[in-house]
Amino acid sequence: YEILTCDWSSDVCSSDLMRKLLLSSCLALLALTPGALSAQVGIGGQLSWGDEADLGIGVRGTLGMPTKAAPLEIVGTFDYFFPDDAAGLDVTYWEVNGNVIYLFKVPAPKITPYAGAGLNLAHASVDGGTPGVSVSNTELGLNFLGGAKFNLGSATPFGELRVELDGGEQIMISAGVLFTVGPGL
Predict the structure, then answer these.
(1) Cα-only R_g, the chain
(2) Is the Cα torsion angle 62, 23, 25, 137 positive or negative in sign?
(3) How many Cβ atoms are within 10 Å of 49's Cβ, its own excluded?
(4) Quick one: pLDDT at residue 69?
(5) Sequence-ordered list of residues with C-beta below 8 angstroms from that of 108, at least 6 positions apart, any chain
(6) Regions of the chain short of the pLDDT cut 70
(7) Given this model, what pLDDT does residue 143 score?
(8) Which pLDDT score is estimated for 95?
(9) I need a labelling partner for 41 at 20 to 30 A (CA). Which of 72, 95, 102, 155 fits?
(10) What pLDDT, on a 0 to 100 scale, did the predictor assign at position 4?
(11) How would you class 8 by CB atoms within 10 Å of its CB: exposed for 0-12, middle for 13-18, buried for 19 or more?
């Protein structure tokens, strides 16, 4: 995994620093969209497959942004992956993603295609090999994604393709279902 390279002379590997950066980014995004708190809220689960990280399972949350100019939605995900452990090493890999998507209007009301971009925070660690030695790295990258939601009432299945630049550096396919938990406008 390319993500396992680490610059030990800096704070690049500090997961505490990365958590603070991610939390600050989320709070700043919410502060910039004060009207979004009254929008439709969804939460659900997803299965993901990455060309580098193999199979993953995760949670997904959405927050519709009540704008008349553009139908936008904030999408946050957390995925925990189960990569193949190489040569008896214990490999751990997870990702946190924050994206903004544009929902396209189409004549078929049951299908809503979307496209968007956002940030990817990927963490990998390896334990084993030499006793007492572990290596870990956390990197921030960009996401470009597209997919479709299938509007079936309060349950909304979805499928998505995401390309990650830096961070996880992989192509990801995700599918799952969202449930509406908050009121619409």
Answers:
(1) 18
(2) negative
(3) 15
(4) 80
(5) none
(6) 1-38, 129, 131-132, 183-185
(7) 95
(8) 96
(9) 95
(10) 41
(11) exposed
How far is 47 from 159, CA to CA, in rounded Å?
Answer: 10
Residue with tokens 């470009």: 144
- Structure confidence at residue 36 (pLDDT): 38
Residue whose entry in the numeric block shows the structure tokens 């830096």: 166
Query: The tokens of 178 are what?
Result: 């969202």
Contact assessment for residue 6 and residue 136, using Cβ atoms and an 8 Å cutoff: yes
Q: How far apart are CA 72 and CA 103, in angstroms?
A: 6
Answer whether 83's CB lies under 8 Å from 54's CB.
yes
The long-range contacts involving 112-117, CB below 8 angstroms and separated by at least 24 positions, are 112/148, 112/149, 112/150, 112/151, 113/146, 113/147, 113/148, 114/73, 114/146, 114/147, 114/148, 114/149, 115/145, 115/146, 116/75, 116/143, 116/144, 116/145, 116/146, 117/142, 117/143, 117/144, 117/145
pLDDT tens column, 101-135: 999 989 888 999 999 999 999 999 988 767 667 88
